[in-house]
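Our consortium's second objective concerns turning raw sequence data into structural hypotheses that experimental partners can test. To show how far this objective has progressed, the report includes one record in full. It was chosen at random from the queue rather than selected for favorable results. The single chain below, 274 residues long, was entered without modification.
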Amino acid sequence: MALPPQDERTMPAVVLKDLDKRPLEQVLAETLALIEQHGHVIVVCSRAVPAAVARRLHTVRSILESDRIAFFRPDLPPLALAVLARQLRQLASCDLSPGVLASAGRLLTHYLHAGALLGSVARLDRVPVSLKAHAKSWVPGSQFGVVVHPEPQLVRIGPEARLAGPEFGTWMLVARGQLQSDWVTGSLAPSWKAQGLREVTQPAESAAWWGTGRLIEFCTYLPDLSVLYQLVTSVRQGSCHWCGIDVIGDRCVFCSATAPAVAAPAPPRQIAAG
């Protein structure tokens, strides 16, 4: 899901629709046009999409033999993934190289808190669910608060229900499904000291990801471009030893090469006294 711009500098998103249904020639032409127009393409894709979509993406990259296409598929719920994609769109307006921009996705995931209010956890496989919680999910009216990132949490909603949240100032984004409740906006957001709150349309993959359509998905994030830019530029950058592009971390997001292992220094030679 392509979220509305966060600010006037947020770059527009290109949505690659029906990748597994359209003729391969069309998808190849569309991707090649993007590369020719922008130089590099960062594809942000949910793990909840059908396997055929992921296969088509890898097929396109293989046929084009291009190391200017980066695939980014973090294990995040759909709403959090949409937030992360928008943050990359914000940073795309800055003076960051393509490799650093693509690498920034892994860094920024650490500053997201993602979860949902669920009407059932019977089909939830994203966090450990006890037999007791499974049994309670069949009780009419039961609701569960779940956080999947950065650390898994699950509580049954009641007067004492609490979920640990971010220890820094964030905004909260909320996407309502078929569940009717004010717990996220009325209780969770104040307890997490959210500095702002906005609501958006529920992503198409949310019901499949959470195992139920009776949900309200939420995600807290850093909204300010200046803060995001400072976070990214404060991290040490290096060059990929294979393709030469600037990156953050030990793995190139474009050619997938990993940094060579650094050999341990040899022990000092012993010099015999004479």
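The partners drew two points from this record. Residues 24-107+229-248 form one domain. The CA atoms of residues 5 and 86 lie 7 Å apart. Both points have been shared with the crystallography group to help prioritize constructs.
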